[in-house]
Design goal:
The chain has 191 residues and is mainly β. The chain is 7% helix and 39% strand.
Length: 191
């Protein structure tokens, strides 16, 4: 089973959210500084699917979710150089410095079956499969070199760290709001 880190919900306060819990905007990057004299600005990419960011795509910038249409993109080392329509010089690009770039959640590309966006998983109940007992809620997904780690917060006691591997994460039911897991020996103190 694979999980997809395609869009981030970093900085929830500025990303907006709907009453249903689904965020309205998803962060895809952060603008850093102008580059050159033709309106390009350097962007740290916070999505695993940067191919989505291409000329003609509408994105939204800053806390006010200012609509921006991408004019051009190109890679510069590990970052992206991005230019927006109507932004043709260094000074105009500088107005976007340190702003988050977002896409509407409704506009995100569909994922293959069995893959999920991170924001869909955060807050889900985590259930131990064999005993059908509630372990807690997923509060964070930690990126590590080998695999992601799910941080589960129980009502009482210490947080539980679960590796995102097939023997542990058995099933994810988005509609039911539940993640079923198998606790292999040693995952929780005393087991």
């Amino acid at each position: 089973m694979t999980r997809n880190r395609t869009f981030s919900t970093r900085n929830q306060n500025s990303s907006g959210s709907r009453s249903s819990g689904e965020p309205e905007f998803l962060v895809v990057g952060k603008l850093r500084r102008p580059h050159g004299v033709r309106g390009e600005i350097l962007m740290s990419v916070w999505t695993d699917s940067p191919e989505y960011l291409k000329p003609g795509v509408d994105v939204y910038g800053g806390d006010e979710h200012r609509p921006l249409r991408i004019r051009n993109v190109r890679w510069h080392r590990q970052d992206m150089l991005i230019a927006f329509e109507g932004c043709t010089d260094r000074d105009q690009a500088g107005e976007f410095r340190n702003q988050l770039v977002m896409v509407r959640a409704d506009d995100r590309p569909p994922l293959p079956e069995g893959e999920f966006y991170i924001h869909q998983l955060i807050g889900m109940r985590v259930i131990e499969d064999e005993t059908n007992s509630l372990l807690g809620n997923l509060v964070e997904i930690i990126e590590t070199g080998a695999n992601d780690v799910y941080l589960v917060r129980p009502e009482e006691g210490p947080d539980i760290l679960l590796p995102d591997i097939d023997p542990v994460i058995l099933d994810i039911d988005i509609k039911g709001g539940e993640i079923r897991v198998h606790l292999i020996p040693g995952l929780i103190r005393g087991t």
